[in-house]
Amino acid sequence: MGENTKSYLLNQSSSTATPVDNPASAYANLTRVGKRSNRVVDPNLKQGQDQDPGGVDPKQRRGSQRIDRPFAPPIYARNAGKSIGSRRTELETRKTHYAAEVYEQFANLPIETKECSRSREETLKGIQDLVKLCTDAVRQQRDTTEPFADLRNRLHQMQFYDFLSKHLIEKTRLFELTSIGAILLQKNNIFPWDIQADARMIAKQVFKYGCDPHLLRGIKTTMSAEKNRSHALDEKYPFRTSANYIGAGDLINGQWWPRRICALRDGAHGACEAGIHGETGKGAYSIIVGGDSGYQDLDEGDTLQYCGTSSSKKDGNGASIPTANTRQMLDSCDRIRNQIRVLRSAASSGKHSAYKPSCGLRYDGLYKITGKEHLHVDTSMYRFTLVRCLGQDPIRHKGPEERPTRNEKQEYAKMFK
């Protein structure tokens, strides 16, 4: 890989997350289902009884305690006395066939893994051929509709390739100027804006997230006895990003997530709930347009009418006190005047919203508050007017550049059907 290209790609990320030397070990727990201990406790045992521990004379034990440790706590059967509904099983949500391989590209690859399949190699080299077709079509002033459509579809598919590795990327020169590197050029770029954004997303996935194509990377999924699923961030995930910053960070216009917890993981929004995220005295950082909250919101694409939250608190004189989230929006409007990240949810208020994604939620760029309206004095309800900042790519809500892509919708259907 050329040093200039590699340097450019690495500079695209402003994350402060520090990758580990061997990501495979950090994620080993994700490939295990329900493995807690090598010791199996008989659930039929009563308190004060214990099974043969193996290698230890049962006579040397008093009930569930060793004679040499008379004050050790007794051993009880796991989940004894708990209702069935409190037991949860960790699920493996990956649909790929090479879950362990996606973390090998930044580790020291064993010799046997350096033999890559010819079909995989040809698949990546096919992207180089598509880039050349597009470049030739532009230079020869031929119709570029079909070449660009083929390249766009291939990039959408590549987002879910589960066989990428450092060795394969270097062997196929995937990010050289004859391949995806040409799409990432900042000057004299002949590729459509959405294809450039998709190429940056691929580079981000490779260089920041370790080639992991999984929609729920870094997230643990559990299921209760009642078959209810829940998601939680994996504390061992090394690439989590804080959402406490002003601006876009390393987010890409049109970047899409299947769940709000995924946006939290990548530093797009700082809470799992729809609404306002910010800090006291620092203003609002991001908002999610959606949730069918019942507020008087209005989405017109480049202009938003967005309500704060209703307050029930009163001061000593009986006047309403704005909520913390509303105060953050007021600070951004009156004092800080900062840019605010806007994410749209598929559950956006207004059944006929033309800008909401078909599923999940999507980052639609930076907005600034240009005005406010005091709707209800008794509850400190404000409605803010936000206008999309200039110089950004269009909202990716329709046409061939729409996000989520067809491939993202298919993966979403597989995972959450």
Give short descriptive properties of this protein:
alpha+beta, 8-stranded mixed β-sheet, 10 helices, 13 strands, 3-stranded antiparallel β-sheet, 417 residues
Topology:
Blueprint: H1 3-10, H2 23-26, E1 61-62, E2 65-66, E3 88-91, H3 118-139, H4 145-158, H5 166-172, H6 180-183, H7 193-207, E4 219-224, E5 229-233, E6 256-257, H8 260-265, E7 276-279, E8 283-289, E9 298-299, E10 303-307, H9 324-336, E11 340-345, E12 361-376, E13 381-388, H10 406-416
Parallel strand pairs: 8-11
Antiparallel strand pairs: 1-2, 3-4, 4-5, 6-12, 7-8, 9-10, 10-13, 11-12, 12-13
Helix pairs in contact: 3-4, 3-5, 4-7
Explain what you see:
- There is one protein chain.
- A hairpin with a 3-residue loop joins strand 7 (about 275-280) and strand 8 (about 285-290).
- The strands form three sheets. Strands 6, 7, 8, 9, 10, 11, 12 and 13 form an eight-stranded mixed beta sheet that branches. Strands 3-4-5 form a three-stranded antiparallel beta sheet.
- The chain is α+β, with helices and mostly antiparallel strands.
- Helix 3 packs antiparallel against helix 4 (about 145-160), helix 3 (about 120-140) crosses helix 5 (about 165-170) and helix 4 (about 145-160) runs parallel beside helix 7 (about 195-205).
- It is globular.
- Helices cover about 25% and strands about 15% of the residues.
